[in-house]
Every structure is written in structure tokens, then in C-alpha cells.
Amino acid sequence: MKFFAVGTVPENRRPSSSSAWLLLILFLPFVGFPLYWLMGSPYVHGRRRQVQAQANHILAERSSHLPLVPEGVDPSPALTGLLRQNRQLTGMPCVDGRVHALHDDPDETFGAMAAAIDTARYYVNVEFYIMSWDATTDRFFTSLKDAVARGVTVRLLLDHLGSRKYADWEGFQKRLTLAGIDWHLMMPIKPLEGRWRRPDLRNHRKLLVVDGDVAFVGSHNVIGPHYGSETNTRIGRAWHDLSVELRGEVVFGVEAVFATDWFIETGQMLQARKPVQDPVDPGECALQIIPSGPGFPTEPNLRMFVSLIHMANRKIAITSPYFVPDESLLAAITTAAYRGVEVELFVGEEADQFLVGHAQRSYYRTLLEAGVRIHRYPAPAVLHAKYLTVDDEVGVIGSSNMDFRSFALTYEVTLLGFGGDLVKRLQANDELYRSVSRELTLQEWEREPWRRRYLDNVCRLTAALM
């Protein structure tokens, strides 16, 4: 069996992942082999893979008449190539759009979402990894309930494992049903009902679409900032997120992501309504939606991140709560720093996940030695925003972390934008984070006790198991 593993595990797998799986199988075969057969493949197969491929083909066909970039924008040759790559891998075109607002404070964010829902006349499409009806989100769910009461169709998707661990799960489902909301679980694990999915493959997307006129994407889950924990509330531990509110043609891209997931989970094909939208000035902002996940074996989000970082000439700023890069991303970041690009990384001082937090720390020495500036957002807060800017040219924001899970194991949705004010808005948010964070130095890191460094490296190995 070990001989078999050596020749099969590395197939279509990154070297670090192959090494981690082989070590587990060779040293602990009674643990390693069952785990590998259960969740060794980073990709989905069967119906989900076929539906995603078909959806990509349909999107590519229906947008084939659109130019590579909207009229009035003039991206650099490198960015033009990246837009072509994104379109080739996902079927999503780059279109006009408007960044209406960035939202960070949870009360304000759910208030803005509720205000958009209150304007709905036809439908509201909701998709989030985690959802809970609590004091913070009551305004949001009440707006959904009121929308149903006035004849609006409300469709809602939520990840099964992502949401079920929070308070009053059974009661929450009943409240959704009583409100008249058409809701379904994503990636459900209900073996007694014949519904089984690999537990490590999840839908991590976070999006909202109202009448095809307005959309939200970002890092917010629909739950209070303390995630329903009395302990978190007592110690002041809150999640800090960032989401973007969109108008214009780009909303169709967000809607296409939802429609694909809705069809996968329900078998129902949605027909988009052509909305009446405010005109967007040519060249105001060019936006592209990039879906990714286990249905995309080409890993479009990872390729986009790596390409963007190689494009940089002056400055890169990365914010990620879970930063566990693969070889290509780490090489791109350190190479950029070595060639004189100013690279900043914003991470939390303490992560909310033990293994990922320690795995992330194992990269700090390499980054610091290359000249990357690491800003640690102070504990007990959890920095959960996920975005990237390159020079003053392009910005990216969405649900995707920069770790192995987001590259291959979880469905994500990301927005790329240039030509408008998205980059300036994100850079202004960087300044807020920078003002409260503490910069980590190489000298300080060298004083870390060897026991913690050992634990970091062990956790780094486990993070590559996919």
C-alpha cells in the first residue's frame, strides 16, 4: 500500500501537499490511508463538476459578444492578460460597474443590506457560508420576511456545516420557513437522507443580490460580530470584516454565481431579469467577478493572486485572516519584495483557528527576511477582511483567504476592480488597520521560543494535507 501511495498521491498535486500526505501515510498508515481515501482529492467529481463546467460554458457563450474590457478603460498589458486569464478560466467577462460603498461595521453593513432588500420588487437572492438570526442580524432577516409578505421571491442558500454549529440551529430553520423564505442547505451532510458530501469541501461564498440592481460581496457572514459566543463577548473578541456594495453590469456576474449554486442545490434554473439601472459613465470602473472552488481544478483565485503580485512595480498590500500560501504565491511575494516592491501584509495578532494560526506563523521568517512588512492587528479582535491592492492600479476583495483551503477546498467569490475608486477605498482601509496594528520585526521574531516555532512548523505540514 505504501508503494502504491508513492506513485499515486503526487498526481496533479502540489509538492508540499504530496509530501504532507505521504508522510502521514508512511508514518501513520492506519490513519493516513483512510483520511486520504475520504478527502485526499482537492476537487469535486460527478454532477457538481459537470454542472460547473456547463455553467462556465454557458457564461462564456452568452458573454462572447462583450469586449475584453469595457469601453473607456485602458488597462496595462499585464492587467489585460490577467483579465483574459480570468475570463478563460471562469467564463466571467470584465464589465462596467460602480462601487457604491465599502462596509465594515456589522450593524451598518446589515443595515445597508436590509435597506437594499426593502427596495426589492421582484426577488432577493442570498448566499452566505454562516447565517444566524440574532440581535445584530434581526434587521436583515426582518427585511427578508417583509419582502416575502409584499410578494417578493426570496431565495436563500447557507452552508450546512458552516451554520449548524451556532445557537438555536433548529429554531433558525423554522423561522426561515415561517417567514416564507425559499431556503436550502449548501453541501448538505445528511447520510440518513442519502445526502453526503465530503466534510472538508464547503461553500464559503458570501453574496446578496436584489432585483439584479444591487449586489454585495465580501467577508461578512450574517451573524453578530462575536459569533454567538458569550466568551467572545466578555473578552471583547469580535470579527472585523469588509464587504463591497455594487451597482451596474457587474451585478449580473454575482447573480450568475448564485444561479449556478442554486441550480446545483435545487435543480431549478433561474432566469435573470433585465434591470433598469442608472447609467455608468464609460471608464468609471471596470469590474470582474472571479468564482473559484473545488469545481474549478484550474484554481482561478490562486492564479489571479500570483499574477497580480508579479505585476506589481511599486506596492502590494495584502489583508488575509488565514495566510498559508502555496509555493507559487510565496515565491511571488518574496520575489516582489526582493526586486524592490514595498510589500505589506495585514494579519491578526491571534487567529481564531489553532492549526491555521500556527501554520501562518511558520511563514513569517521567510517573509521578514525578504523585506515584507507584517502588520499584526491587535488581539482579541479577529481580522477577517480579505482584500489585496497592487500599486494604485487594481484591487481585489471577496470571500477568498490566501490559504490552501480557499484555493482548492472551498467555493469562493472574488471581485477584481480597476479604473475607479475601489483601490483608493481599500488603501484608505489599509490606513485604518495600519494605525492600530503593530509591525513585527525580524529581530523580534528571532526571539520567539523554539517550542512555538516547532509547533508552527508541525501545523504548517498539516495545512498542506489536501
From TrEMBL:
UniProt topology in membrane: Multi-pass membrane protein
Keyword Cell membrane: yes
Domain PLD phosphodiesterase: 199-226, 379-406
Keyword Membrane: yes
Lineage: Bacteria, Bacillati, Actinomycetota, Actinomycetes, Kineosporiales
UniProtKB keywords: Cell membrane, Membrane, Transmembrane, Transmembrane helix
Name of the molecule in the record: PLDc N-terminal domain-containing protein
Subcellular location: Cell membrane
Transmembrane annotation, as ranges: 20-39
Pfam families for this protein: PLDc_2, PLDc_N
Provenance organism: Kineosporia corallincola
